[in-house]
Specification:
The structure is a single chain. By secondary structure, this protein is mainly alpha-helical. The chain has one domain (about 5-85). The chain is built from 4 helices and no strands. The radius of gyration is 14 Å and the shape is globular. About 10% of the residues are buried.
Length: about 100
Amino acid sequence: MSGLEDEIGLMAEEAVRVVKDRTGETLDFSEGSLGIVEETLDEASHYFADLPNEEASKLVHWFGCYLLEVGRRNFTSGTSKGSSLSWWSVNRSSMWQ
């Protein structure tokens, strides 16, 4: 993996840790885990404006990276699933139609 992919993975793991610490649930990088993320972010929306900027930024980065990592692990094209962010270049065209 590239340095960027490594960094995204590390930040995504922070989202996993946050959810585990707050709810006891485990994010597993599956599409199904996105419901847990949605519930967690809904809860966070109630106090987000009161967070210090640095904490708010961390929360956004961690969960944004978690979403990217779910996409990378589940929607990567080619024979080595999960090997790169190539899913973005393959799937983005359908987003704009």
